[in-house]
Amino acid sequence: MHLAFDQSAHTGPALVCLPMFSMSRAATATAFSPALAGTGLREIYLDLPGHGDTPAHCPPTSQAVLDTVCAWLDNHLDTPALLAGGSYGAYLAAGIARQRPDLVRGLLLVCPGITMARHSRHLPDEPPLDPPPGWLDAAPAALHAHLDTALGHRTPAVVATVLTALNSGGPGDARFQQRLQNGPDYALPDENTHVVFPGPVSVITGRQDGIVGYTDQFHAMRHYPRGTYTVIDAAGHYLPYEQPTLLRSLTQDWLRRTGVSTPR
What we know:
Number of strands: 7
Largest sheet: 7 strands, mixed
Number of helices: 9
CATH superfamily: Alpha/Beta hydrolase fold, catalytic domain
Structural class: alpha/beta
Radius of gyration: 17 Å
CATH architecture: 3-Layer(aba) Sandwich
Oligomer: single chain
Shape: globular
CATH class: Alpha Beta
CATH topology: Rossmann fold
Helix content: 25-40%
Order of helices and strands: EEHEHEHEHHHEHEHH
Number of domains: 1
Strand order of the largest sheet: 1-3-2-4-5-6-7
């Protein structure tokens, strides 16, 4: 099936990056490309069905979205890929590793969703860090509650970066996204299945992530015998935009464990 995508001109191993829910491949590139600079990897950024420039050409279920990504990987890549993703994209990447491990060389999971049922998520009990006055002034009022919950590094500069990412790329299909997120099949059918993925994995979480938290991700490490888990203070659900320097350092460590050469 068709998925809109961008890729770098490099000829190294493929690294396929999957977006956060409702976000585009342009936003994903802004999040991950600084962490990958100089690696020589063939960076590929996908728009999921109903996201960015990809039409909603599958049923509004996470399994259908995952199957579409797997079909794209089967049709476009000759060898297993490194998979990276944020939030929902990381949730899908982990699902692909469970269902089609033959397609996956390693996983970089940033603020991954573990359970799609919001009432089942274990979120931080502590209040978020105190922001400077007026830190949300540039954001639309409709986004204030979301950003207040999602962000750990709470500054006007971070808000501006996140807003630019949210508004980048194609428009997506809001009706499809709503049906997917609110439908009975938002969770993958094997979400709670205990399947071990033996490849190198890095799970990176934000200490102040009020959307998916950080503790469910630690418990999920039993699936990854070669996994590294990191929780970053002053970071929330938009961690790549909040702490890009730390993300780069942790990404370089993950790439070394995958056997991919990185700059010294």
